[in-house]
Amino acid sequence: MRTVHHLVPDGDGWLLSLSQTWHPEQLRPALRPVVIVPGYGMNSFIYSYHPTGVSLEGYLAEAGLEVWRADLRAQGRSMSTGGGDDYALEDLALTDLGAALAAVLERTRTQTDRVDALGGSLGGTLVLAHACLRPDNRLATLVCMGSPVRWEKVHPLVKLAFASPFLAGLVRLRGTRRIAEVALPFLARRTPWLLSVYMNPEITDVSAAREMVRTVEDPNRHVNRQIARWIRDRDLILEGINVSDGLARVTNPLLCVLALGDGIVPPATAAWPFHHVGSVAKRLVEVGSRTVAMAHADMFVSDQAHERVFQPIRDWLLDQQVPRAGESAQRIE
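Structure (tokenized):
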């Protein structure tokens, strides 16, 4: 596989880091490129890494797709050219994602004029918000992995962490990656029940913590405050518009993937976009079971990820390259 790095101005004081990956022998130029948008407090590294097998990026590239990882402001190798830390979800979903999508279409090796988008956690929320608030967008097929829009259910630990919008936005956090590197193996050994809201160490190799935490970024206090208000009010409001209600106007084909043991974005919340989007072509994939629990991070890095998560995503993206009239909603467990 080949990977080329790009720095793209977003017009708001940031150079966004885009990584373009393709397999020279497998690339199918007639297929749309897919852009991967990482979640909150992380960068796109985890999509190019797997502790025991091929990454999601590599898995899709081997299928002939051109894969782009988009690090928005303050993520990965993105750089400030004057932009500060006082930004909001709107800036990520509209300004940055819009600039990233335009750059992909300018630089793609494919012969297409639209982009498929895959968002993990909050990255999927940003993708859905962009589709809702920018009706002239260049998005085609969408994939969301554990992505909230309306908080139908909130885990008690998440509710506690964001109980006060004022306090959530008060403290500037630093050194989160180092803390995660120490905490991950400790929690796996001593309090796996606490780690289980995010990851199941029985199916995810936590001995690779030093590598996996390369995806961790410091959270932004201004976005923290916005998330706390969002959780309190339940509906996502951006630019004064209720995005939760606006999903009914989004008709892009949509695949929702959720983990039944997810404590970060509980299943009822992660499934909400599937049930309320206006798409005719849509599918819900639920992974994990009572015997093999899968949580939030397990969708990306567990031993189960390839068969249960990567494969249905690949198949969905390939199937939607040729739209089929009258395709009905599907649910897969």
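The first strand starts at residue 2 and ends at 9. The first helix runs from residue 56 to 62.
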